[in-house]
Amino acid sequence: MLCFPYSGSITPLVFISLVPLLIVEDYITTNKLPSRNVFIHAFICFFIYNLGTSYWIYNSSAEGGIFAFIFNTTMMCLAFQSFHFIKKHLGNHKGYLSLPFVWLGFEHAHTNWEFSHPWLSFGNVFSIRTNWIQWYEYTGISGGTLWVIVINLLFFLLVKKWFAKEKIKKVAWITGLVLLVPMVFSLLIKWSYENKTDKQKKPFEVVIVQPNIDPYNEKFTGGPRKQTDKFISLANSKITSKTQLVVYPETALSYSFYEDDFQLLSVFPSYLSSVRRWNTNILIGASTMKRFNTKRSKASRKNPDGTYTEHYNSTILIDKNLNNDFIHKSKLVVGVEKIPYSDFLPFLEDLAIDNGGIVGSLGEEDSVKIFNTSVGKIAPIVCYESIYPEFVAEQCRKGAELLSVITNDGWWGDTPGYKQHFSFSRLRAIENRRWLVRSANTGKSGVISPTGEVISETQWWKEDVLLAQTELLNENTVFSIYGDYLGRSSAFVWMLIFIYAISKKILPSRK
Q1: pTM for the whole thing?
Q2: How far apart are CA 442 and CA 27, in angstroms?
Q3: 416 vs 4, 31, 114, 300, CA distance in Å?
Q4: pLDDT tens track for 54-95
Q5: Residue 290: beta bridge partners?
Q6: What DSSP designation does 361 have?
Q7: For residues 297 and 360, is the Cβ–Cβ distance under 8 A?
Q8: Which of 22, 341, 406, 490 has the fewest CB within 10 Å, making it most exposed?
Q9: In this structure, what are the phi and psi dihedrals at residue 201, rounded to the nearest 5 degrees?
Q10: Hey, what domains does the chain have and what are their CATH numbers?
Q11: Which long-range contacts (CB under 8 A, 24 or more apart) does 29-37 make?
């Protein structure tokens, strides 16, 4: 808990955080105590981790927060129990070797299923220590998780040998090298990147607006005209003749409308005149709808006339040629924008959490998309999408030259939540070596360099505008190209080892 960003931020503690649990597990196994004892101790450990790092979820939804704490704790416990089962039936050596595969595989699986929640992945811990993990451009956050697990195992081995009064010099040297070499390598990578002379630099000026609208009492109750005038006035205070993009936050247009009717909205002429006057592109977060003749997905809602409507959390681009395009959010917030498995159990839609706007499952894109403009290719990343490494990597594979995060972050109050969310964006910048601009309704808006450095940022609960000097970059990293190869391969190996352990349990041993 204390090692996680803004819940303590004592990052080095992450390298010993699992040692007490490993000691308890070893004691239970050695003394042949019931395996349920491992689960009980793991539950206590991971519940403290979940509650201490993300208690702020409770502020937006008490029911959702309690469910998240218990559910995610249980998932972590099951992963650790899997390691214990493997170790119990395959022996200590194979068991400890399996732990990195088990945990990386678990994090990958937990990121890519209906109840997805990658917020607490161990690799996220280093989002405030970006000088340590410049090699994320090769591994993504799974590399950070692997680093954490291996060093915890080495420290556990040191403690075990110490109490057994065995020699520890060799293990101590290995532990020191595994701890320090990645940090030194990271600094060398950063120095090499910053001094690279063959980078194709395309200057790109962006204006970022943080309107600071209360998401509970103002966001969905104030008039659209008043809010639009505020957005335009704020942007106008910083716009220059060189500005090529203006970014407004998530659901800046908070009132749902059919996308075909966008140009009929009362506020559309205001945005259109702004584009003409500024000669720039505008990115706007919006709540939109589309109508279909047949049911398209679980998010399709039947209309009285027999047609179907889907609601979306969208990003709209109005380009300088006065064209507009829509991209829908793909990674939806579980329990708020997406009800897991409700296509099989429709009654679950009634359990959706109301955070303003549309309640229940939203529609999503069929594939990852980016905006192609006359001045560059832009990746729209809406709120929760920014904590999905492979999603952003795929946007870069499709040619994105600038990462643009739009979010709200006001739901949780002045807690570590919005700070953690902002810091995770630094990892996406490093993984893909792209500039990242971030517009929040309130919370933190800012500008992040390709090495994860925060160039500028706003304050909590403050109306503000940033003028950002960025660059368009299109050279893909290893991670941009291959994605989470560590997580995918680990999940496969984990399953093989687990099946092998089951076979050893159920099949009689041959002598």
Answers
A1: 0.93
A2: 48
A3: 10, 41, 25, 35
A4: 999 888 778 888 989 999 999 999 999 999 999 999 999 999
A5: 310
A6: P
A7: no
A8: 341
A9: -100, 125
A10: 11-195+484-506 (no CATH), 202-286+314-327+366-474 (3.60.110.10)
A11: 29/84, 29/87, 29/88, 35/81, 35/84, 35/85, 35/88
